[in-house]
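Hey, resending since the last one bounced:
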Amino acid sequence: MNKIFLFLTALVYLYLGGWALFFPAGFVDSVGLAITTNVGSGEVRSLYGGINFLIGLFSLLALVKSKYESSFFKILLFVITGILLGRIVTFIYGEFDSVFLLYFTVFELVYFVFLVTALRKQERKIF
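The structure tokens again:
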């Protein structure tokens, strides 16, 4: 199951990260954001593009070299938890009003549950 997760994660994050990294205008149009300056374009390339693309690359590395799997899961859990914190604050401020946010939140919750479960299973392994 972990290998399937790593493969799907690599596909999703390389795609989304590459899209934001190399085509930020198209990316923001699709997710409901706007770029009004070069600073905005740089931020989209960096935060949405660079980070997500590297998550995808690290997922590929963990897929082919199992010794990196636990480290990858821990780092991704940290990132996903931060994103979910932002979703909670968005909800508290009454801005959680789109189906788009709901879809991404469900995606992130599924990832969160999978990662916590996988890491707990890894901790129980003796050999």
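The radius of gyration is 16 Å.

Sorry for the duplicate.
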